[in-house]
Amino acid sequence: MLKQIYQEYKDTVLLGIVAAVIGIGVALIDVLFGKVLNSLSEFREEHLAILLPFFPIVGLLIVYIYLNLGKDCTKGMGLIFSAGFKEREKIPKRLIPIAVGTTWLTHLFGGSSGREGVAIQIGGTFGHAVGRRLHISNCSEILLVAGMAAGFSGLFLTPLAAIFFALEVFVVGSFEYIALFPTIISAFFAYFTSKALGLGKYVVQLQEPITADYVIVAKLIMIGIAFGIVGGIFAYAFSTVRIFLGVSLKNPYIRVATVGAIVALGIFAFHQGRYSGLGGNIINACFQGGDVYWYDFLLKAAFTILTLSAGYQGGEVTTLFTMGASLGVFLAPVFGLPVELVAALGYAAVFGSATNTILAPIFIGVEVFGYDYLPYFFLVCSIAYVFNANKSIYAMQRKNYLFH
Question: Does the reported pTM lie above 0.90?
Answer without folding.
Answer: yes
